[in-house]
Amino acid sequence: MGSCDLKLYYFNLQARGELIRLILAAADRTYEDIRFDINQWSEYKPKMILGQCPVLELTDGTQIPQSMAIARYVARETGLAGINNLEAAKIDAVVDTQRDINETFYGKVFFEQDEIRKAEELEKFLNETLVKHVENLGKLKKAYSQNESYFVGNKLSWADLFVFQSIKALLKAIPQVKGKLGDQFKQLIDAIHSNEKLKAYLDSRPKTDF
Amino acid sequence: MSIYKLYYFNNRGRGEVCRLIFAAAGQIYEDIRYEDDQWLLHKDKILLGQMPVLEYNDIKLPQSRAIARFLAKQFQLAGKNDIEQAKVDAVVDTIEDLIEKLIPVFDEQNDVKREELSKKFFNEELPKHLQNLDVLLKVFGNGGSFFVGNHLTWADLYFYNFFETILGINENCLNNYPSLKQNRQEVEKQPKIAEYLQNRPKTSI
């Protein structure tokens, strides 16, 4: 890798594309960050392997669909997936734990149309689901971390970037979350903001609705 | 002494792909199965209070796909290089998307609503995802029967296991997808897997 021929196709949103962009930014890896609006999607859709995005296109034209498969691949290529198979697995476990909570939030709260049901689910999410999740991440960090800032081993991994991005997105969607998180993620967030390459990316990335 | 211990319920669910990987690899492990009431007694002692969990030496790993990928890599069933591994992950995630559509159907208590959700699953979600899986098999499969690179990977085992459940509900659901049907037949023919399938506990999910 290291080729500028790496292409990422996604909407001009953070959503399911941003983790990939963060990993590539942390590694200072050049790539073509192809972003389109919803009204351009009909142009791109037939060119995507499963008619969905994000898609990562490699130099030889191979297309990889599925945001997490892409993220894991670029993390592996850029040294952000742990130093061995076991560390990679611990990272995957943290990622999947965060992913479960994201799916619950977006599935049951964020995209819920019925106002009454939405309010009920939000209440449950804030007071039960999120509390348990923060506890679980704490347990995983205790079991896997050798460093006060990062989830696994001794250095930044894509698990840290995923939790960071997810928390940021959650805070933007429901600011009430802030009170529920306590100081749990402060060291992680500080570490990421102090990372030169990430700071440069975060300061310059396009501002989008989500 | 076994260095691998797998903790899960006494059914296939989210534990079976790990058991299939162990079987394909011919790897000995402790297959710890809990009935529901036993689980309630052990839940507090298990990391995150959920299963499956893998104990590897002293390390505990939760999350079924994280465990499966780890085991697959240990036993060369994850893909021969980074790109193949990414393709395998993409197939698994596509199957997982479909699993996540089925879960609300199983969870629905109201009979009428469940029937509605089930119809929607079989008439809309299933064909859409089968179409996608068919594409991935053709594009990643190098013309062979396996999903990626012409050899068995855990993507094939993941597909095999989930579709055992679906075929149990609707035995004709793969009739329009001969390549996918053949993929499952190819998995069943692997000698170590055939032996495991014959001897394992039979469960509907």
TrEMBL record, chain A:
Sequence ranges assigned to domain GST C-terminal in this UniProt record: 84-210
InterPro entries, per database record: Glutathione-S-Trfase_C-like, Glutathione-S-Trfase_C_sf, Glutathione_S-Trfase, Glutathione_S-Trfase_N, GST_C, GST_superfamily, Thioredoxin-like_sf
Molecular-function annotations in GO: glutathione transferase activity
Residue span, GST N-terminal domain: 4-82
Swiss-Prot/TrEMBL GO biological process terms: glutathione metabolic process
Domain of life, per lineage: Eukaryota
Pfam families tied to this protein: GST_C_3, GST_N
PANTHER family associated with the record: GLUTATHIONE S-TRANSFERASE (PTHR11571:SF150)
Protein name in the entry: Glutathione transferase
Species assigned in the record: Rotaria sordida
TrEMBL record, chain B:
Reactions performed catalytically: RX + glutathione = an S-substituted glutathione + a halide anion + H(+)
InterPro entries: Glutathione-S-Trfase_C-like, Glutathione-S-Trfase_C_sf, Glutathione_S-Trfase, Glutathione_S-Trfase_N, GST_C, GST_superfamily, Thioredoxin-like_sf
EC number: 2.5.1.18
PROSITE patterns, A to Z: GST_CTER, GST_NTER
Domain of life: Eukaryota
SUPFAM superfamilies according to UniProt: GST C-terminal domain-like (SSF47616), Thioredoxin-like (SSF52833)
Keywords: Transferase
Gene Ontology terms describing biological process: glutathione metabolic process
Function (record text): S-crystallins are structural components of squids and octopi eye lens. Contains relatively little if any GST activity.
This protein's name: glutathione transferase
Organism of origin: Rotaria sordida
